[in-house]
Amino acid sequence: MHDLEPGRSRVAKRRRFDDDDPTFLKRTARDEADSAPQTDTWEMAELDGADRWSTWDQSSPLERGPLPYPEWLVTELAAVDTELGILKTGKEADVFLVDRSVPGTDRRCVLAAKRYRSSNNRMFHRDAGYLEGRRVRESRDNRAMAKRTTVGMQMIAQQWAYAEFGALRSFYELGIPVPYPVQIIGTEILEEFIGDPETRTAAPRLAAVRAEEKELQDLWEQLVAATSLMARAGFAHGDLSAYNILVHEGRLVLIDLPQIVDVVANPQGRDFLIRDATNVATWFNARGLDVSGDDLGRELIAEANIR
What we know:
Order of helices and strands: HHEEEEHHHEEEEHEEEEHH
Mean pLDDT: 82
Shape: globular
Distance between the termini: 59 Å
Structural class: alpha+beta
Strand order of the largest sheet: 1-2-3-4-6-5
Helix content: 25-40%
């Protein structure tokens, strides 16, 4: 067993942030030590201050975003990744800001890296309903997940990460407004950063937007179109609210999709569609826009062809 560094406790105390605070948060020295990717010493000089080589070549074609790749995306194997700080913390995962660039050139892009936490962290609050219809073949694996063993929790984390990446990939191809899914490695999802890459300012969540009636009406229509497309494909967001919808330059973007629900395979599919519709309609109604969650719920159920 390795000795601990002087002055460091065996259990690192995690800083707490408001889960709904979109403010960019710069990491402290402790964060650097705890969460920076591990790199051999001999490689550090090669990286020239970056945290790691680009992980692009570590993902298979199905673990990358759909073709054609966007022009802004850096796919060169000579690229390096540099962590810029934390964008958001949540119950299941943290989102980091990552600069991917090719040294000596002007090729670079800013990505959001969503990392699901390891099994020793609090995660997946009330996840039983979402996991219905997501069984794996091995009964031993199902038992491990049901009992929340250490291995089972790690399997759940990976299952949720892959469920989210798969949803992003499918939805992007269907034209549903989601960030472009760049790649997945284990329980880390790299995706398009929604915001201003120059200032590194993230787009605000819908909950923080103060809009006039005309703008609200446009956002509502965008939301109805997006959720209808999702339902037609047989899915519900599962946890839709004003806190996991971004608004960037007037465009609505859906985020946080680990709890995506197959409304046909999941016996509670109808309930998830209705709940999503009710949640968002309630927010719009509270801002003075007269919309009906019941009507939207019925429309989504019809689109999903649930009887």
